Amino acid sequence: MTPPDDDISPGELLPLGRRFGIVLVLGFLTALGPLTIDMYLPSLPTITTDLHAGAAAVQLTLTGTLVGLAFGQLLVGPLADAVGRRRPLLGGIAVHVLASVLCVVAPNLAVLGSLRVLQGLGAAAATVVAMAMVRDLFDGLAAARLFSRLMLVVGVAPILAPTVGGLVLNWTSWRGVFVVLTAVGVAIMAASALVLPETLPVAHRRNGGVLGTVRDYGRLFTDRVYVGLILVAGLAMAALFAYVSGASFVFQDSFGMSEQQFALIFAGGAVGLIGATQFNVRLLRRWTPQQIMGGALLAGLASGLVLLVLAATGTGGLVGILIPLWVVLTMVGLAMPNAPALALSRHGEAAGTAAALLGAVQFGVGALAAPLVGVLGVGAVAMAVVVFGGMLAATLVCFLVVRPHRLPVERLEPALAVAH
């Protein structure tokens, strides 16, 4: 079925240059979390040696970042609905910058892990406020298209971050990676302060306090479709983070790649992810977001099964791992823009809180995937088991809980106007 043309949303009425600047900065905001996660991935084996820790323990520093991202969004989302978008955003990025500075001088793994949680808390503000601003400015298919465009900017992070991390390791230790993250945080904070308007008018702010926040979250949990959609997004993210957390050990330790070779392999997967998000924009001209999401999950599940079989049998060597893995990442790239757009379109009256719960589930489930890979081992089979498990669970939730074929195709209410 061809979806109907969506109404023009307020963001599309902005001058082209201003709209481009806002979208670009929103993309950098949503990239802050992936940059924080991915830039130090080539350093994981080095940190293991330098801080005299096991691989599973070092992977917990990744888990700490994801926990911070998840918990931080639950705090920032209601705050952004109550006081506006800009103040929580700038305060959160400042926390990220401070944590990055302290990571540079972390004396042991325990301190580093704690600071990574703090980094995640700071990055959470950037993630949830960016999504809420998208919902403030755009709606319906316009929002789905913008999520796809933002994924293009976000996708630059996993391509460049491990490469930059590998280059930094050529000149200094893993601590230099956090120097670079400090500089990135400062630059993003400056761009946000200069370019982004306040998109939530005072009249639309929600000041119900703690009880109001609890009521908002309770209302969200009563929406079966919304809960199903955020679980789909979270479980697809789990498959992605199983790859993120296990890839450096699989390709560097098992296949003997250098840090730079690993960065190139990681970039190849990111290219598939990015290409899919952009192809999604073209697919939306013919199919609905729910149709694309369902089809992508089924294809990703099949590819995940192939990955698991080839990894378990050792068939195909490196190529046998890479090809189905890249297909899975491509399918995740098709599913990810549509699940958030569908979820947030159902609760525009509390966009910050809805985006916070969405992001918390995404990164919370991802946080569970990272140590699970470490517990199962550091080889290709362990990574493949969790990747396949994430795609299987996402597909089951999609078709048993969300039931995308039953969702109505209709025009959605216009988004909120921009507050200057």
Automatic annotation (TrEMBL):
Q: How does it sit in the membrane?
A: Multi-pass membrane protein
- Identify the keywords attached in UniProt to this record, alphabetized: Cell membrane, Membrane, Transmembrane, Transmembrane helix, Transport
Q: Do the record's keywords include Ubl conjugation?
A: no
- Domain (Major facilitator superfamily (MFS) profile) spans 19-407
A Pfam match is MFS_1
Looking up SUPFAM superfamilies in the UniProt record yields: MFS general substrate transporter
Record's protein name: Bcr/CflA family drug resistance efflux transporter
Look up and give the organism this protein is from: Actinoplanes siamensis
Query: What transmembrane ranges does the database entry give?
Result: 20-41, 53-77, 89-111, 117-138, 150-171, 177-196, 225-250, 262-281, 293-312, 318-338, 350-370, 376-402
Record's family?
Answer: Belongs to the major facilitator superfamily. Bcr/CmlA family.
Q: Indicate yes or no for the key word rRNA-binding.
A: no
According to its UniProt entry, the protein's GO biological process terms are:
xenobiotic detoxification by transmembrane export across the plasma membrane
Which locations, inside or outside the cell, does it occupy? Cell membrane
Supply one GO molecular-function term: xenobiotic transmembrane transporter activity
One Gene Ontology cellular component term attached to this UniProt record is: plasma membrane
Q: Where does this chain mainly localize?
A: membrane
